[in-house]
Specification:
- This protein is an all-alpha fold.
- The protein has a single domain (5-179), classed as CDP-alcohol phosphotransferase transmembrane (TM) domain (Four Helix Bundle (Hemerythrin (Met), subunit A), Up-down Bundle).
- Helix content is 76%, strand content 0%.
- It has helices at residues 5-23, 29-55, 61-84, 93-115, 124-142, 151-179.
- Helix 1 packs parallel to helix 3 (61-84), helix 2 (29-55) runs antiparallel to helix 5 and helix 3 packs antiparallel against helix 4 (93-115).
- The relative contact order is 0.13.
């Protein structure tokens, strides 16, 4: 059911990526606020599409496939652009890298587990990680355009908090996945 509203919301997250990336090349505070608004709208669709799919009984294989990919593409592209446009301090490249690497690890692990018909549900801690990450990134997108708070500091602290949770949840997922491979992760 490609045209269901939940699937269209998921697709919208992918469609917004070039717009957010393009706004990095536009000078001025308005472009930063627009990128922030687009990112926040995309982040809201992440929650909303899943809620609608479950409540309207429209959970589809296509949606289960595309939803995590859309999330990872959005987050990774924005983190790369923040680094490329010097809107992260050098020390904050590390949490950005940790977040992207964990997403690749978990994606590969999910793919393997799907082949052996094992599901890997999202943990509550991983949902907190996502919430913190999806709050820190738009703050970093606004950056210096917000004069009412130290946005870079607030965003980078949030990014570090998300990275710490990323390591914890990534390890939990890896340990769980390894148990299905007949090997010990410890």
């Amino acid at each position: 059911m490609l045209t269901s509203l939940p699937n269209l919301l998921t697709l919208s997250r992918i469609v917004v990526i070039p717009l957010v990336v393009g706004l990095f090349y536009v000078d001025g505070d308005a472009a930063r606020w627009a990128a922030c608004a687009l990112f926040v709208a995309a982040a809201v669709t992440d929650w909303f599409d899943g809620y609608l799919a479950r409540s309207w009984n429209q959970v589809s294989k296509f949606g289960r496939f595309l939803d995590p990919i859309a999330d990872k593409l959005l987050v990774a592209s924005v983190l790369f652009m923040l680094a490329a446009f010097d809107r992260l301090s050098t020390v904050s490249f590390l949490p950005a890298l940790v977040i992207v690497l964990r997403e690749i690890l978990v994606s590969g692990l999910r793919e393997f587990l799907a082949e052996v018909r094992v599901g890997m549900p999202v943990s509550r801690l991983a949902k907190w990680k996502t919430a913190i990450q999806m709050t820190a990134i738009p703050v970093l997108l606004v950056g210096d355009a917000a004069t009412f708070m130290p946005t870079r500091l607030v965003g980078e602290v949030g990014l570090w908090a998300a990275a710490i949770l990323t390591i914890i949840t990534g390890w939990d997922y890896l340990r769980s996945g390894m148990s299905h491979m007949g090997e010990s992760a410890e």
